[in-house]
Structure formats: C-alpha cells, structure tokens
Amino acid sequence: MIYSKLAKISLATIAILGLGATSLSADTLAEVQKQGFVKCGVDGGLPGFSEVGSDGVYKGIDVDLCRAVAAATLGDAKKVKYVALNAKERLTALQSGEIDMLSRNTTWTETRDTSLGLKFAGVNYYDGQGFMVNKKLGVKSAKELDGASICLQTGTTTELNVADYFRTNKMKYKLVSYDTNDQVLKGYESGRCDVLTSDQSQLYGLRIKLEKPNDSIVLPEVISKEPLGPVVRQGDDKWFNIVRWTFNAMLTAEESGVTSANVDAMLKTANPDIKRLLGVEGQMGENLGLKKDFAYNIIKQVGNYGESFEATVGMGSPLKIKRGYNALWNAGGLQYAPPFR
Amino acid sequence: MLITLLRNPKVRGFIFQLLTVMGLVAFLWYIGVNTVANIEQRGIQTGFSFLNGTAGFGIDQSPIPYTEEDTHGRVFLVGLLNTLIIAFAGIILSTLVGVIIGILRLSKNWLIAKLARGYVDFFRNIPLLLQILFWYNVVLRSMPSPKQSYNFFDMFFINNRGLYFPLPAYNTTFYTILGGIVVALIATIALNAWANKRKDTLGEDFAVIPWAIGMFILFPFIAYFIGGSHLEFSYPELRGFNFKGGKTLSPEFLALTFALTIYTATFIAEAVRSGIEAVSHGQKEAAASMGMSHYQSLKLVILPQAIRISIPPIINQYLNLIKNSSLATAVGYPEIVTVFAGTSLNQVGQAIEIISMTMLVYLVISLFVSAILNWFNNKMKIKER
Q1: Which residues, numbered 205 to 264 in chain B, qualify as contacts with chain A under a Cβ-Cβ cut-off of 8 Å?
Q2: What ipTM does this complex have?
Q3: Which residue from A minimizes the CA distance to B340?
Q4: Is residue A341 included in any domain, yes or no?
Q5: Which residue of chain B comes nearest to A116, CA vs CA?
Q6: CB of B54 less than 8 A from some CB of A
Q7: Of the candidates A87, A163, A151, A115, which has an alpha carbon nearest to the alpha carbon of residue B342?
Q8: A144 and A161 share a domain?
Q9: Do the domain assignments include residue A178?
Q10: What is the spatial distance between Cα B140 and Cα B161, in angstroms, rounded to a whole number?
Q11: Structural domain count, chain A
Q12: Structure confidence by residue, pLDDT tens digits, A41-83
C-alpha cells in the first residue's frame, strides 16, 4: 500500500515533469469524451462519502458527483474510473493530471484555490471539525482535552485546525498522525491516542466502523468551517463550468421538485424553470459545451441533491446525518444554486 | 578528408560520445522547459519561498524545539534530524546484532548455529514494510493504556504510548560526568595506540581491555564528585491523559528501529559469516601450527582478513537501512518523508521542489556514509609494499 502510494507520488511528479510535450488538460472535456470515462479521485474508504459497497460498486455523496459529471458529459453515469487517493496524494494527483476531477471531501481554502493551482467548483457538503473520544474518559467538552494524544489523518486541514484550536485555548496535545483513515481508526481503537479528530461527518462514518461504536462519543464542539467540494485544475474554465453546473443542476432539481422518479413526466411540464433545466427550452447545455439534455441525464441516472444526500449520508443510510447546513436555502440551510437562465 | 577523419576510430568515438552528451542535455533541457511552462499555465506557485512560510501543523517528536508557528524550513530540519536519528540507531544496533549472529552461525554448537540460521532465513525473507507494520501493531496491541502502565521502580514505564524513562537535568554534575566519559574514551584510544607500538617494538602483549573498563568506571565516578555530586532527574509521572517529564520513546520509533535492526542485521550477519568463511582454511591451520590458541588465531589471523572482505557488503546494508527508514511513513514516525515530503507537500503543493529536496537529502547522507566507509575500507585494505 505504501509502495503504491510512493509510486503514485512519484508518478505524479514524473507526470508533472514529463507531460510537457502534450501540454495536457487545456481541454479536459475533449479528453474525457475521447477516453470515454471521467477519471474521478475519491477517498474510497469513507462511509457515506465514497466507499466500495458489498456489491463492489462505489457509493457515496462524493461518488454521486463523479457519476453526475459522467452523466452530463458522456450521457452515462457508469462511465467513471475511480481513483482512490489518500489525503496526501489527492492534490498532487489532480495537479499532475492523473485525475480529471477530485471529489473527495476536500476542504475549500484560500491556499488551495490560489497557489496550488486548483479551483473549487462548489460545496457539496458543509462540514465542521469535531472530536471523538471514548466514553470511559468521562470527557464532556473539547476544552477538557489538555494533554491528550490525538490521532488524525495527515495532509488535511484537520491538523492545522487542531493546532490552532489548542493554541488559542492554551492547551497542549500530542499528535499522532497517520496516512489513511483506516490507520487513524486502528490507532484510536488500540488506545494509541485518546481522541480522534476529523470532520464531523467523517467521525460518524468512522464510528460505525468501530468494533463497539457505542463506547465512543462525538464531543459537541465544532472547531472549524469545512466546506467540502469538488476540485478541478486551474486554467480550464470550460471544465470548471461543467463541474460547477452539474452540481447546481442537482440542487436546482431538488428545489423545483424534479426527482429521478418524476423526471420523465417533468419533460412535459409547463414550468419554464424546469423546462430550461431539462433542456426542453433554451441553450443551457450548449452553453456548457454539452448536449441539451445533460441535466436530464444527471437527474434520471443519479437523482437530485436531496435524493443523493438521503441515500448516502442521510436518513436512508446507516449514518443518519440530518440535513442541517446542507438543507436548501429555502429550508433553512446553506445550499443555494444560482438560477438556470 | 571528412571520410578519412570518420574512419579514424578515435575521432569516431569522440563524435558518438559528443552526440550522446548533446542528446542527453537536450532531453533534460526539454523536460525542464516543459515543466516550467506547464506549472505556469496551471498557476502553481514555484520557488523555495515556501520554506519561510508558517507550517501550522504539529510534530510529535522533535529533537529540536518546534512549534506550530515555525516554518516549513524548520519542518525540513526536524524531519532530517529524525531521519538521522533513526539511521544512527538502526546502524549501531543492526551492526551489534548482525556481528553476533554472524559469529553464532559458525558456532560448533548445533542448536545455536541452527537457531542463528533460522533467524536469518526467517527475517531476511519477509518484506520490511510488513515487519514494521507487524511490530507496530504488536507494540500497540500488547501494551496497556497509560493508567495501567508496566511500572519499573517508579522510574521506567511502558505502555501503548511509548517507553518512558527518567532524564538527568543538564547541570554541572551532568556535564562533568559526560566529560569523565570523554576523558576515559581518549585515554583508552591513547593506551591502545601505545600498546600496539609496544607490541611492534618489544613484541610484548599488553591487556588494554581491563584498563579501559576500569577507566570508564573510575573517571565518571571521580567526575561526579568534582561536579558537586548533584544529579537531578526528571521522572515521568502520570498527569491527566499522559505521562509528563522524563524522556519518551514513541511506539512508532521503537517499532521502526526494531524492525530495521532485525531486518538489516540478517544481511550483516551473512556478510560477517561469509567474510569469516572466505578466509582460507590454510590460514587457520598455519596459525595453529605456529602454536596460537583458538582465540589468538581468531583475533590475529582470521578476523583481520574477514573484516576486510565483509566491509563492502556491510556498507551496502548501511545504505539500504538509511533509505529503508523512509518506510516510517507507514507508522507515522515523523522523519523527512512523513513530515516534509508528506505533510508539508500537501500544505504547499509544490511537489517538484519538495520531492527534489528530499531526494537530495538521501543522496547526500548516503554519499557521506559511503565516503566515510570507503575511507575505512581503504585503511583496512592489504597494504602492498
């Protein structure tokens, strides 16, 4: 596993070094259409976001976004090639062109958006960092964690937040950092650390993987803003627009009540908003360089944002996370898509 | 004229070499230009100014003071030092274990010889990465939590957070004792040189070892009183979640050092054994016929020749060990690949600069070690007169 990771890092480096001649990725869409699939970077081991199900198929809210982009660009949500990446590899893999897009619970930050040569195309999950501890410790608040050993995944905003939080609260901690979530979980389970910290959604996902989930609790404090979303490379605005508006189409569909079940009936609707969304009217698809019915394909094959959320992390999943910040703007949440017009 | 020139093998050879070098330079130049162009096109930052940027993340084990507010340059330094520490510990321990096992393999005692052989065959043939992960999980799973630590005299504690031991405070007494040890060391070296010279001129033996042991006990002991006989220790103590005070060796460090030692020692043992066996049997018989005892023939005839043969393969093992220490990233020990080529790379995203620096570190360390050992090898070589 480590070898493959080293191989990936070095491959990425070699790719950066070597791909000069072709000047890769000025037109990701053309490339995706030529190769016939979307290369999508995911976590691969995170319940609810992206993991391989018992049937061998990738599932999760991040995976749904990959599928939606494939549906929009190729007309078939199955035409995705998933690349499982850990936190350390993911950004280099995208920079180097090893993947076409990254949909791997990645936090949108200023640095990543600018000096790393990346662009965030939206926020598909509003998250915040939290702490999980064993009940035995009797800790009720993150403020009581002075001197604790903390397990986390390296290469994340998590380790920056935890450093800031303990410094501002004048507390000390011992850091135990691992490469993958699986190792983090193992470290926590074996007692190498007292606390496991990560984004709250991940904590719930990791908790159900524990041998005894009920022995652990998630502390109430949320110490950071973690807007997670899909990422693409800088310098390809067309592809950036496609990923952004694929996600917006899912949000708009939920807002106007279009679901995978009723999308065929909706083609005959009189509602002009829905007509534009589904390509019955207007030039929305063409503007993006896609077919007229790109949004129809997304909704038909993947579903709208609400459907995807409930099935992967919401009430229809073992995680049972409430919509919270991820409800639509008109239902008290933050999810808001600009209009299709 | 041109044709005759081309027929000249010297000229022809030169032209082909020139063409090869030009081709290589052109290739590298092409890669360089393309890389820069592509990086600029994507808007990725370049250059080494990131080394002055704040790192913002913590590192658990650092031989030098480090806080989250330090720079990526400091992270590089911490990673480098941790790499050197693990390499140093690994080389010393694996040499000790390797030499002992190598000699035991030649033991006349059937059981000892077979056990040593079994050890070599077993650990040499399992991938190092698996061994590291195995020992790490063994350490973590078999040790108790801090509250149930194994306690030795209230000074040493072992639990799943590491091995804790007391640390002397750096006061006058501590430094005079340290000085005493250094004086004993210098005296031993001088005594050894004197004994060798005496042997060469007078042919008389002088037993250095008892004297050396005596000095190493006596000198620090005297130094303790000179320094005011005031040694203070900071003892590990369970406070809150973890032990505080004293010194800690983390499970990551222990597992990594142990695995590297166990693995590399098998190769060193083989190098030592093959070195001893490579010394012609006639040498031993000649020594015996001159009336030397078994110990004398080993010390004066066999080992000096065996060491000569063993050094080159042992150098290789040292270099391997240094490079293998980068597998630390599997268990999260903060050496240079883990913290600098891992965490820092992820925060600043400048893969080319960071990976190049890391590669350079290994290159420089390895060249340095092989330079020292080549010098040693030359010194040990047969001096032909």
Answers
A1: 239-242, 244, 251
A2: 0.73
A3: A155
A4: no
A5: B44
A6: no
A7: A87
A8: yes
A9: yes
A10: 8
A11: 2
A12: 999 888 899 999 888 899 999 999 999 999 999 999 999 999 9
| Most B CBs within 10 Å, among A3, A11, A16, A167, to test the B interface | A16
Q: What is the mean pLDDT of chain B?
A: 87
Position of tokens 């018989």? B285
Domain boundary among A180, A206, A224: A224
Question: Are A215 and A251 within one domain?
Answer: no
Is A339 within the bounds of a domain? no
What CATH number should be reported for the domain whose range is B95-169+232-338? 1.10.3720.10
Shared-domain flag, residues A264 and A293: yes
Q: Are residues A187 and A275 in the same domain?
A: no
Domain CATH for A67:
3.40.190.10
Chain B neighbors of A175, CB-CB under 8 A: 57-60
Interface contact flag, B57 A235, Cβ < 8 Å: no
Nearest CA-CA partner of A64 in A233, A301, A302, A254: A302
Provide the H-helix boundaries in A105-178.
110-113, 157-168
Looking at A256-330, list the stretches that DSSP marks H as alpha helix, in order from N- to C-terminal side. Answer: 263-266, 272-278, 284-287, 294-301, 305-312
Task: Specify the range with the lowest mean pLDDT, choosing from A191-200, A309-318, B69-78, B171-180.
Answer: B171-180
Q: What digits encode the pLDDT tens for the residues B59-91?
A: 888 888 898 889 999 999 999 999 999 999 999
| Inter-chain residue contact A18 with B33, CB threshold 8 Å | no
Are A54 and A119 members of one domain? yes
Give CA–CA dist A149/A278, Å, rounded.
Answer: 52
Q: The whole model's pTM is what?
A: 0.79
Q: How far is CA B31 from the centre of its chain?
A: 35
pLDDT digits (tens, 9 = 90+) for A271-321: 999 999 999 988 999 999 999 999 999 999 999 999 999 999 999 998 888
| Between A25 and A162, residue with greater pLDDT | A162
Any chain B CB within 8 A of the CB of A2? yes
Residue A18's pLDDT is what? 47
Residues 6+ apart with CB under 8 A from B81: B62, B63, B64
